[in-house]
Every structure is written in C-alpha cells, then in structure tokens.
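Field log, afternoon session.

UNIT: design team B
ACTIVITY: writing a sequence onto a fixed backbone
BACKBONE:
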C-alpha cells in the first residue's frame, strides 16, 4: 500500500512539473518595416534559431530574456540585435526597422566644425544624458561622427556600425535616420561611426539619436553626454522659390533661377542659401 502511494505521488510530481513548465512560457512576435525591406528579404530570428518572416510568432519560449537578431540584406542596414523579455503566458510584440543604405556622399566644398563635445579623458560606454547640439544660425550638416566603445552590452555591435538621427527639440521633428559606418580611429578605446546627412537645418537645438546607446562613449567632461562631432557649413538664407512641374524662373537674392519644364515630376520648393563665397541651391522638399 505504501509503495502504491509513493508511486502515485511521483506521478503527480511529474505532472505538476510538466504543467508548471508549460505555464512558464510565452510567445514572441516581431514586425519588420518598411515594406520595401520586407520585400527584399528582411527576416528575424530568436536565440540563433531559423529565420522568421515579419509578423511570424515564435511560440512556447521560456519566459525571460531572449536575443532577437535581424537578417542582413543588400541595400539595407539591419537593426541592431536587441533583447526581448517574454512574459509568462503572454504574447510579447516588438518592431524592427531597416534603414536604406544609400552610401556616403561627401560635400563638394570645404567644411568646418559645427559642434563637438569630445575630449581626451577616459571613456565609459552608455551615455547618461541626451546629446543636444545648438546651431546659432542655419547650417548644412555634412558629417556626423558618434563614438562607441566595443565589447559592451551590444556584443561587439560598436564595431558593426548602425544609424543616427537628429530631433528638433522645439518641434519634435526627426531628421534621418542615416547609416553610420565604423571608421578607423586613432583612439584605441573607441570606434567612430560616420554618417553623412548633407541636410540643411534651421537655427535651433537638435538632439542626436544613436541606434546603440549602450556602447556610446561619454565621460564627466562631456557632461555625461555621448561623444559627437558635427561638421558642415554655416549659411545665410537668401530666400526661396516654388517651381511647378511645368518649370519656371525667378529671382532669389542676387541669383536668376530658371528651371526647364519637366525637370521635376511635381511641384517642389527650392531654397537658395549663401555659404560665404558661394551660393548653393538645395531641394527643400522632404526636410
């Protein structure tokens, strides 16, 4: 009799363990964007398993942290690998956004420093404060460098590069993101990420957004903010001109502007600015 009781208790323990294990699981679903990247083959995986498509669900994962990676595809910069926390008995959802890889374009004119908070003091990864760049007057931002310390929580992601953006503090409007590629650096501790926005910005404050804040280099001398170097040219606004698909002409400042019919598929706004010795026309649509 005693033996039967012990056997029954053992069976109950096994069943309880199996039930508890089943309850200690959850599901994970990842949605990828934009659709053009999905059409080009964008996929995701969890903990090194097989690649999954956008919107697929990985089921019955143990509750806790899981590593989500994104498949590299030609013409696009994949999101950084991230940790997803799967809750017991719940569906956890997250998104991954790919960035178009348009290559780097250097401006055809000399540039100067617009902003820098980098210094030679010892570095720490992971900024404790936002990086805010003040532009006292309009400028064309040609190049942006952010500095990263390899070997942090991103598992070497600092050496792979990522993406950067700028957010206007006053309006909240975000410019970017732009691909940021790792560059050789004389600083043995850090890796420089180089992006080439080549974008005209109005005077004001702009927050620098980085895709890998965990490895962003900072120290007390930078005010706890991640290291950033920005170069470009200051310019004075000389006015603008609206041009339709039928073309047109007009005077902006001291310049005569003429656009042949069919130059643009639809109406655009042209902004003409002076950088001191030269005047440059930039298409303002989309900024």
């Amino acid at each position: 009799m005693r033996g039967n009781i012990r056997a029954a208790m053992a069976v109950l323990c096994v069943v309880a363990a199996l039930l508890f294990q089943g309850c200690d699981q959850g599901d994970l679903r990842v949605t990828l964007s934009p659709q053009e990247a999905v059409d080009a083959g964008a996929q995701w995986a969890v903990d090194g398993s097989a690649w999954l498509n956008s919107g697929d669900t990985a089921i019955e994962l143990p509750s806790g942290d899981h590593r989500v990676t994104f498949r590299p595809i030609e013409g696009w910069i994949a999101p950084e690998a991230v940790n997803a926390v799967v809750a017991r008995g719940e569906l956890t959802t997250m998104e991954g956004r790919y960035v178009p890889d348009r290559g780097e374009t250097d401006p055809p004119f000399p540039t100067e420093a617009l902003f820098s908070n980098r210094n030679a003091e010892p570095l720490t990864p992971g900024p404790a404060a936002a990086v805010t760049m003040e532009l006292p007057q309009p400028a064309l931002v040609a190049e942006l460098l952010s500095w990263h310390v390899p070997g942090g929580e991103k598992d070497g992601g600092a050496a792979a590069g990522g993406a950067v953006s700028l957010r206007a503090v006053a309006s909240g409007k975000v410019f970017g993101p732009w691909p940021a590629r790792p560059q050789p650096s004389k600083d043995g501790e850090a890796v420089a990420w180089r992006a080439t926005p080549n974008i005209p910005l109005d005077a004001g404050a702009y927050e620098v957004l980085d895709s890998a804040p965990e490895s962003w280099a900072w120290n007390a001398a930078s005010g706890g903010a991640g290291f950033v170097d920005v170069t470009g040219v200051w310019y004075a606004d000389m006015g603008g001109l609206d041009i339709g698909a039928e073309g047109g002409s007009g005077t902006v400042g001291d310049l005569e502007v003429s656009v042949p019919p069919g130059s643009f598929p639809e109406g655009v706004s042209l902004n003409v600015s002076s950088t001191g010795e030269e005047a440059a026309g930039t298409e303002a649509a989309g900024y």
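LOG NOTE: Confidence is low (pLDDT under 50) at residues 5-21, 276-287.
NEXT ACTIVITY: expression trials, pending approval
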